[in-house]
Amino acid sequence: MSPNSHASETKTHQKHVLRFDAGESALTSVAWAAIAQTPGVGVSITDTKGRLIFVNDTALVLFSGTTDVDYEGKTIADFLPPKFVDERLALIAKVIREGKPIRLTHIYLGKPIESTLWPLKDNLPPHDRVLVVSRTPSEASLLQAIPLELESVESKYIDLGPLNILTKRELEVLVLLGHGMSIPRVAAILHRSPKTIERHKTSISKKLSLRGQSELVYIVTMMGLEMSDVQRERLDKD
Questions:
Q1: How many C-beta atoms surround the C-beta of residue 186 within 10 A?
Q2: Is the predicted pLDDT of residue 163 greater than 90, yes or no?
Q3: Lowest mean pLDDT segment, chosen from 22-26, 150-154, 200-204
Q4: Could you tell me the residue ranges of all domains in the chain?
Q5: Do the Cβ atoms of 156 and 235 come closer than 8 Å?
Q6: CA-CA distance, 4 to 83, in Å (whole number)?
Q7: Residue 66 or residue 238, greater confidence
Q8: Which of 16, 41, 84, 136 is most solvent-facing, going by the fewest CB within 10 Å?
Q9: Matching CATH topology for 7-158 and 161-234?
């Protein structure tokens, strides 16, 4: 489905590939296919009700952890936590109302994700749809070559994935140690004794099955964790 066309899904070697109407411009069809099938780039189309019109495989993996998802006839509320859904729907409504894209950064399933919500200009129904382009910072993307001045927002919520097992204090210690701070420095920042920080580090390593400082640093770097993330509300998906 391209921004100005009606499209239907077809099954080929990929799970979700779009078939364009006969009257569709060949150039538009190729451009849309290039975006939807670019490796590492998640692409989805939804509306102000959160109905899922199209989701490519990368987007499924980013937000569900698998491509084995049947989204036809469903909404984002069928897959995402309520608070995250409310936040996303509010942004979609803002994008449609103002006619301007918004960039949203968040951590979900333990992965840092950057999503850009683009308003679609539909000449024919259905109206009020947005194109959502998502990627992780580590993924190369053609979009990186395009300098854009967009309004950027950060999600109020966080899904730490496997790190959800950590307490808030342990997460603070993890982040500070992961940024290269020494145990005495972490102790001073958190107003705790070095022995207490050592105990937290041991507990963190045991819970996450870490084999050394390098793995701890890798986790924090890979997720892009900052101390501000510790204060975000964790998503409850139960």
A1: 23
A2: yes
A3: 22-26
A4: 7-158, 161-234
A5: no
A6: 31
A7: 66
A8: 136
A9: no
What superfamily in CATH does domain 7-158 come from? PAS domain (3.30.450.20)
Q: Which of 13-17, 20-24, 124-128, 211-215 shows the highest mean pLDDT?
A: 211-215
Strands (E), the chain: 7-10, 17-20, 42-47, 52-55, 102-108, 111-119, 129-135, 151-154, 157-158, 233-234
Instruction: Using alpha carbons, select from 43, 149, 151 the residue that is nearest to residue 98.
Output: 151
User: Would you give the distance in Å from CA 151 to the centre of its chain?
Assistant: 17
Q: How many residues in total does the chain contain?
A: 238
Q: Is 191 exposed, middle or buried (0-12, 13-18, 19+ CB in 10 A)?
A: exposed
Domain 161-234 top-level CATH class: mainly alpha
Query: What does pTM read for this prediction?
Result: 0.75
Residue 4: band (very low, low, confident or very high) from pLDDT cuts 50, 70, 90: very low
Cβ burial 152-177 (10 Å sphere, 16+ → b, else e): eeebebbbbeebeebeebbbbbbbbb
What is the end-to-end Cα distance of the chain in Å, rounded? 33
User: Mean pLDDT in the chain?
Assistant: 82
State how far the Cα of 115 lies from the Cα of 104, in Å rounded to an integer: 5
Query: Is pLDDT above 50 for 34?
Result: yes
